[in-house]
Amino acid sequence: MRKFLVLLRKEVKELLTVQVIAPLLVTAVLFFFIGNLMDKEQKKSDQNTNVAVINNDSGSQSSSALIELLKNNKLKIQLLENKSETEALEEVKKNNDAALIIIPANFNQSLETGKPEKIKFFTPLNNFSLTGSKKYSTVTAAIAITNDAFSRNMIAKEITNADPESLKNPIKPDEYVVVGDKQANISPNLIMGFVSQQTAFIPIILFMVIILASQMIATAIANEKENKTLETLLTAPVKRNSIALAKMAGAGLIALLSSLVYIIGFRSYINGMSGGAKATAEVSQIIKDLGLTLTPESYALLGLSLFVGILVALAISLILGAFVEDVKGVAGLTTPLMILVLIPYFLTMFLDINSLSPALKYAVYAIPFSHIFLATQNLFMHNYLPVILGILYQFLWLVVFIYIAAKIFSSDKIVTMKLNFGKKKV
Amino acid sequence: MENVLSVKGLKKNYGQFEAVTDVSFEVKKGEIFALIGPNGAGKSTTLKVISGLLSLSGGEVIIDGLNIEKDSDKIRKIITYLPEDSGAYKNLTGNEYLRFMAELYSDTKKEADEFVEKGKEISGLGQRLKNKTSTYSKGMVRKLLLGRTVMSKPKLAILDEPTSGLDVINAMEIRKTIKKMAKEGMSVLLSSHNMLEIEFLSDRVSIIDKGKIHESGTPSELKKKYNAENLEEVFERVVEPKPEEIK
Q1: Cβ pair B34, B206 in contact under 8 A
Q2: C-alpha A408: how far from its chain's center?
Q3: Which residue would you say has higher pLDDT here, A36 or B127?
Q4: Strands B79-82 and A177-179, how do they pair?
Q5: How far apart are CA A111 and CA A168, in angstroms?
Q6: How far apart are CA B78 and CA A131, in angstroms?
Q7: First and final CA of chain B: distance in angstroms?
Q8: Contact in structure between B179 and B32 (CB atoms under 8 Å)
Q9: Global pTM value
């Protein structure tokens, strides 16, 4: 055990290089910074959506009501007087305003006759960013709400004793979400949006951990072979299996540490992108009541699935690493492993695996890494059996790959494997 | 004098390819024994089998009375191996590298401390041991590795081309260290292309070619037998094809 710890300490020291730490920290800080920036910008755009208005029907009741309604819907209105359309547009561009609205001269009268005049609406496009599009959608949303208010007024005026709401929306959906034997009176879009946003980062992190860990261990072995330090180690009084296990443990530890840093950075990024996406207390309670939360047992199973999955990836990389002669060969040899992780990553992100054809479905199930990605969805739905079976299946592969890796490390193959590529040196 | 190493009829195959077909020799306590031969003669393979890195396909290797096939764990405690052109861990300092290797060869912290002190002294790298090995020159790395190879006072040190690629000064320092360690009782088995080095260092040599030992003896015995000025001439005459072999 003492010698295993000596080997593990060396592995961690060798892996924790400036080249590993610096990009890790920079990426995490960047994610954090971009997330915060996005959050601030979105809040800023919420508060300051400036719109210029030329009111050619100044003094009329309807035009004043229109401007008042726009103001109440997050728009900052600047009234332009004595300006031509061209001059006003120039000013809007100069001030980087979201839009220029021109209320026609006979606006009030046209509404009263039931033939409303068109309102000119100029939107200067100057960028296609998320915050930019949010600015325009705020204006569109405000116009829609204002339109709705006017419509209600007109209905109330035209048809006495009528309920404008019933006339506008005669079909009233009463939406229920059903999860297992539980149900809640809420829109499924709201629940799905919130849950998927909260869990979006899980497969990305899983993918990154697996790829990072495998690249690390394959590079570590390639480095040792290239430097011939592996030959020295293999002749030292230490069990060969301890050398292999220390490599797996070292790479696993660093990969977990890296993913922790990424999780923090990525979460902040996602939160910033979605403007915090904080659920109201009511939605949070409904999500809880529906059982759409991960319990401590679920987290333990997800952790176990990820842990066994990482070990499978490490064992495969250990075998692949034995084939590599130098660091340059690592990327090429770990490509098959990356494909095995990418397939379930993308499929589970975009598709319901159960809706695939049986052949494709079982092909996905046959990949040990699929079960890590499927575990999150199953655990949300409290389907524990498939998760447990998935872990057992991964464990089976782990035993097979560790057996092969141990065989390679305890034989001449770890030194001579390159001979298979026709480069003999005796 | 007792034999520290005894090799009898050693064979090593890589699949169908016979890298070493028949190698036998002994190394005595405190003796420096050299294997010389052209590229691909089987020197490195022989050293790798004796160091336990590769399994043997036939024959017998006995080190300090222990059989390499049955007692490999015990043997690894009493031998050390320095591969040709090997490096050190680039992210470790010289001190950290010596400490890491010392902890693998020792059973107690006290023993590890002793090994590290010895390694530092032999390497002669002084304050540079505090720097990462990635900043070392080739000569410095070789000195560090030699320090590592002999710090645990092995009964047998196996050195594959110990001065390969080094400048004259560094090579001389390493040769002196090897001689000094042998005088202190350590047996050394080495391989080299450099005949002058072999003549200066070795007590006895074996000439190996095509996986077989062709000649063995002290440098002076061999020079006398082949009426040669130096080992280079002996080597040439031993491995040179005889007229009847030339078609």
Answers
A1: yes
A2: 39
A3: B127
A4: unpaired
A5: 18
A6: 70
A7: 45
A8: yes
A9: 0.75
Cα-only R_g, chain B: 18
Pairing of strands A120-122, A177-179: unpaired
Q: State which residue of chain B sits closest to A9, comparing Cα positions.
A: B100
Q: What is the DSSP letter of B160?
A: E
Taking CB atoms and an 8 Å cutoff, what residues of chain B touch A425? 44
Q: Which of A16-25, B97-106, B223-232 has the lowest mean pLDDT?
A: A16-25
**Cα–Cα distance between A281 and B55 in angstroms, integer?**
69
Cα B154 to the center of its chain, rounded Å: 12
* Eight-class DSSP state of B68: T
Token pair listed for B61: 């290797």
Copy the structure tokens of residue A20.
């590993």
| Backbone CA torsion sign across A34, A216, A246, A307 | positive
Q: How many CB pairs under 8 A join A and B?
A: 90
Contact B84 A228 (CB under 8 A): yes
Got the DSSP string for A58-123?
TT-HHHHHHHHHHHHTTEEEEE--S--HHHHHHHHHHTT-SEEEEE-TTHHHHHHTT-PPPPEEE-
- Please state which of the ranges A179-183, A231-235, A397-401, B142-146 shows the lowest mean pLDDT: A179-183
Number of Cβ within 10 Å of residue B140's Cβ equals 20
Complex-level ipTM beyond the 0.85 threshold: yes
Q: What is the pLDDT of residue B154?
A: 92
The minimum CA-CA distance between A394 and chain B, rounded to whole Å, is: 33
Encoded amino acid at A94, one letter: K
Bridge partners, residue A122, by sequence? A100
Q: How confident is the model at residue A40 (pLDDT cuts 50, 70, 90)?
A: confident
CB contact under 8 A, B104 and A231: no
In angstroms, the first-to-last Cα distance of chain A is 35
Task: Indicate the DSSP class of residue B218.
Answer: -
